[in-house]
Amino acid sequence: MEKKLPIVCPSCESELKVNSMHCESCSTTISGMFELPLLLKLSRKEQDFILDFVKASGSLKIMAGKLGLSYPTVRNMLDDLIGKIEKLQNTPQL
Amino acid sequence: MNKFFNPFRYIAGGKSLLAGLLILFLTAVTGYFSHTHFPDLISIKLSPAFPLWYFVVQVFTNWLVISIVLYGLALIFSSSSVRIIDIFGTQALARFPYFLAAVTGFFSAMSKFGRYILYTRFHQGEPVDLTSTDVILVVFLMMLSLFLSIWTIILMYNAFRISANVKGGKAVALFITAFIISMVATLFLSRYYLSLVAG
């Protein structure tokens, strides 16, 4: 089963931060307080869309064909994603 | 159901323009043979034997006027890069229900009812006896025409919403504005075309 990376707190719905990282090879654990990279703050579906978009060389036409959707639908999805990314970038970090 | 009211999630651009142009042409030709015309953006009416060019010009005018107005509004109010082929293509395809409306004109009950109204209200033509079957069929066809008009408006709205990437209240307000402007313009143009037909 593929585990889903939680990005919001299940208790208070605040944004989660990275507290520790672990090396499976030598069992080293690093503790600290790290921001999640912007792309990881997006949903899995949105991350997949970005990956597919890059693989399609940024062609909305290819994306539309691949997803079986019309060109304006895919463009609207991209525009919504751009809006979400801009909102995340403009949100002040606490 | 989603494809029924919003096929534009799956089809737009050149494909919808080609299919839409074919549908518009078939609507005009069918309307010519079934004596059904569309004197403004949404009206469906029985017509006398007008020449074919009138039906073609009227059907294409209805499509072009709303498409031009919606494209203008999309350019001003949409934050996305709107393609003209999406607006015109999806608006052409959105008029598919009017092809079905043109087909309903082939039912003789409708023309019989038209003659009945002419005689009883305006004392024109010969007396017409309507059977109960005629009345039932006319009521059914009228309800069908109403449904086809509502379906067309929903399709036109969804076509605009998808093509221009506008949402919510903004999309509704822009569509209503375009609709009113187009209604007035198509009514005005229709009167002009009818004056040409009348000579």
Automatic annotation (TrEMBL), chain A:
* Organism name: Prolixibacter denitrificans
Q: Return the InterPro entries for the record.
A: DUF2089, DUF2089_Zn_ribbon
Q: Where is the DUF2089 domain?
A: 9-37, 42-86
Name this polypeptide is given: Uncharacterized protein DUF2089
Q: Pfam family of this protein, just one?
A: Zn_ribbon_DUF2089
From TrEMBL, chain B:
- Residue ranges annotated for the Yip1 domain, each copy included: 8-187
Query: Is Ion transport a UniProt keyword of this protein?
Result: no
- Entry superkingdom: Bacteria
Please report the record's description of how this protein sits within the membrane. Answer: Multi-pass membrane protein
Keyword annotations from UniProtKB, A to Z: Membrane, Transmembrane, Transmembrane helix
Which InterPro entries does the protein's record reference? Yip1_dom
Q: Where in the cell is it found?
A: Membrane
* Cellular compartments per GO CC: membrane
Residues that span the membrane, as ranges: 12-33, 53-77, 98-118, 138-160, 172-194
Indicate what this protein is called per its UniProt record. Answer: Yip1 domain-containing protein
What organism does this protein naturally occur in?
A: Prolixibacter denitrificans
